[in-house]
Amino acid sequence: RNGPQLEVVVGDLFPEYHDDNLDEEARWLQRAQSAANFYNNTVDEYDDGPPDLEEALSDLIKDSTVIINCIGSLRVTDIWTDFLKVPWRLFRHDVSRHCSQTHHPYFTHYLATRKILRIAENEQVRREAETQEEDLSQQDLTEYQHLEKKMETPQQRIRFISISDLALSRKPWMPLPVVTNLLQSLVLRYQQKAENLMTE
Question: What is the DSSP string of 126-165?
Answer without folding.
Answer: HHHHHHHHHHHHTTTS-HHHHHHHHHHSPPPPPEEEE---
